[in-house]
Amino acid sequence: MAKILVADDEQKIREVIREYSEFNGHEITEAADGMTAVGLCKLNDYDLIIMDIMMPKLDGFSACKEIRKIKDIPIIMLSARSEEYDKLFGFELGIDDYVVKPFSPKELMARVNAVLSRNSAPEKPAEKIMKFDGLEINIPARTVYVDGKKVELTPKEYDLLFYLVENKNIALSRDKLLSDIWGYDFFGDDRTIDTHIKNLRNNLGKYRDYIVTLRGVGYKFEA
Can you list the positions of beta strands (E) in 24-154? Predict the structure, then answer.
């Protein structure tokens, strides 16, 4: 059983998600606005958040930013808008999935279970901290240091960097990265990977060139 926070200003939407979630054995807490959602996250621990973008008091994007400051909780974003900009902005914030309204409750539950499954999977053990000049990566601790300074990444940026490092010097296609990191039937496209790579390189500073672009293929971590 997972503890799920559902943040949406539409009561009917919350009721539908509650009904299907409880049928799947999950425990639901509701919030009608972003401010309430942030407050609940400060007081409680959740396994997953399903959050609408357009909400009163504090929108979903802003609420996501505030929650990310205090806790690393998987987030599925809901929106009546299907614009590519909204999706890419959400993934830049580190959300795990994006569902456009109106949605199929069964599909939403499939996505919920997939996100929960990915985040409950044990991390691959690492025998030691990996160092590449001044870049220090500790996968079990999920920490990255650049010249001794800790770098804060979004959850998906951590996952992407660790995957690249674990497969260093191996060419990885965009499709494989999407499949292995985002998983199952993720409906994003190549630009999702490109956006995360761009942000990751910016965070790595002068060590950005360790992530090599393979034209027409994808990327690899070259060390």
Answer: 27-31, 48-52, 75-79, 97-100, 130-132, 135-138, 143-146, 149-150
Q: How confident is the model at residue 187 (pLDDT cuts 50, 70, 90)?
A: low
| Pair 34, 59: CB distance under 8 Å | yes
Report the 10 Å Cβ neighbour count for 57: 14
Residue with tokens 């999935």: 97
In a domain, 125, yes or no: no
Angle between helices 84-92 and 190-204 (to 10 degrees): 40
Listed residues 87, 120, 153: the one ending a domain? 120
Give tens-digit pLDDT for 105-153.
999 999 998 888 877 755 555 446 889 999 999 988 889 999 999 999 9
Model confidence, pTM:
0.59
Q: What is the pLDDT of residues 74-95, one digit of tens each?
A: 999 998 876 777 778 888 888 8
Q: Is 142 helix (H, G, I), strand (E, B) or coil?
A: coil
Q: Are residues 168 and 216 in the same domain?
A: yes
Report CA 16 to chain centroid distance, whole Å. Answer: 24
Range of the domain at 158: 130-221
Residue 137 lies in a domain: yes
